[in-house]
Structure formats: structure tokens, C-alpha cells
Design goal:
The protein contains 12 helices and 18 strands. With 350 residues, it is an alpha/beta fold. The two termini are 27 Å apart.
Amino acid sequence: MGMALSLGRRGLGRVWPNPNVGCVIVKNGRVIGRGWTADGGRPHAEALALNGVDATGATVYVTLEPCAHHGKTPPCADALIAAGVSRVVIAIGDPDPRVAGKGIAKLRAAGVEVATGVRDAEANADLAGFLLRITQRRPFVTLKLASSFDGRIATSSGESKWITGPLARRAVHSMRANHDAVLVGAGTVRADDPTLTVRDIGVTRQPVRIVASESLDFDATALLAGLSDAPLWLCHGPKVDAASWEARGAMTIACGISNGRVDPVDMMMKLADAGLTRIFCEGGGTLAASLLHAGLVDEVVGFTAGLMIGSDGTASVGAMGLDKLGDAPKFTLSETRQIGPDLLHRWARA
């Protein structure tokens, strides 16, 4: 199962709206087949692992319950039964109503031994985006904050490139690649004119670039120039005429408004409906505050540099209107390590 989990992680950021599943087939003590969900979500991991092997009497290890419904591909449970496997070991069940125990039931009805719950905590973590999309109609959200030691992301004049070093920035590119989309607010676009693409690490499949802006009041030279490499989605208010953006190739998503800004809950619901399972938010401070205040942040990744900017600099997180410490969003430290001259610290939702 450890190998299957490792294989499944290869699909992070590449297989949405489908889950990033890994599968390993073992026969007579030898691995005879392995697979992971292909880019775009098809073929499924089980189909790839079964391809070209004689799996009669084999044991299959798979990180998510095999599908039992006819979609764009036949059910994986049927494929396993047809291959003559004798045992299937599953990390976690699939909450999708089209599956939800039906895959396991189909296997058992065909005489296949089924075991479940093997390394389920790891599978739940690896598949969190898919699971949240199905059960809560929202994607998994990682908030990245790269700041000075005193929590600032720019000087009083707005200078922000670069607070952290090149090794930290390279790590950020790897994190972008493991998510379906990269999200920023309009202020970040106005200040930095970013491309938001994954660069210099050999990635061929780019994440969706998303800008949240109530009125679309910004220029996006770099974003539009990169449309041939990566999609651009714009989340905006319901009264905005977005035709000119659509004419230039961007996809526009009308969202509700809360406190004069794009409502983060409605935005995440609509992004989930569009198929996204994992979103990497890179700010700015106002967007970060709105996501935190709405309870939508599942993980915070901080890159802290050894310099001080002072209170006249721009805070990494905007105002949240908190009066009591007990109301503050809470996270549990899960990792710390040095990256060049900077410190990486990763925090999970408490």
C-alpha cells in the first residue's frame, strides 16, 4: 500500500476532477503491475496497472475504492473481476454517491476478498481535495505566506521582490505543480503582474491561474500572455461585464459578493463545481484574510526570511476584525525545515 500511495501522489495537480489514485498488483510475491491516475483523470489507476499483465489470483492494492459506475470509462471493479484477481486491499472508501460502497459490494459479490482501512490516514490526506469536493462542495485550500520575520510581504513603498531566496521560490513552484490551481487577488496582480506558472522544474502540465476580483479592475499582461500555456479563470461580481476578458480567452465565473468583495464561500463552491480539488492561494493579504475568516484554509505554508521590514510594511494577512484570541483560526505545526537562508513551516487546520 505504501507503493500505491506513493504512485497516487504523482497525480496531484494533474488529474482533477478525478481523484489521484495509486494501484499496485502483486502475484506470487512479485509486483507485476502498477499504475496511477493519468493526466486529466483517465485512464484510472486500476486500468493502467492491469494493462498487459496476467492478474489471475493476484492481490491488488489501491488507495481508493474502485469505481462501480459507467462514466467515460467502464467500472474499475468490473475490470478487476474480469482479470480474475483474488483479493483487493483498499485504503479508503469513495464517498461519491455513484460509488459509495458499491465497488466493494460488487467485488465481494463476485467472490473477491476485500480488505479496507489499510493506511487510511495517509490516503485521506493524499485525497483530501477530492474528498472535500464530494462531501463539502469545496476544494482543499493551501495558503502560502512568504514574509519577513515580522510578518510583512512588502515595504512601505510596495517593494516585495524578493523577500525570500531562490531556493524557497523553487519550492513554491513545486507546490504550485501539486495543486490544480493557483489563486491570487486583484491587488497582487496590480502590484506584481505575475505569471503564476510553474517554471524551471520540468513540469509540462500547468495549474489553472485564478484571480479573485469583484470588478476586474486590473491589467493582466503577464497572465494573458501566458494563456497558451495555462488557463486563466476570473472570479468576479455578478454585475460585471466580463465579455472583453472572455474574448481574450479567459474563463469568467460570476460569484456572490460579501462585504464588497467576492464571497469566498460562493467562489470555492463554484470552483469545486468546475472540477477543482486543490487550490494554492498566494495572496495578497485581503484575500488571505477572507479565506481564513470563512474557515476555508486547510493548510498554511509559511516561508519566513531573516529580515525585518517594520509596521509600515504590508502585512501578510489583512484585517480580520477579531476581538478575542479564541476566535482566531488555529493550525497545528506539521513540518519545519530550512530552505537556503529561509525557514519553511507547514501548518494543518487544527
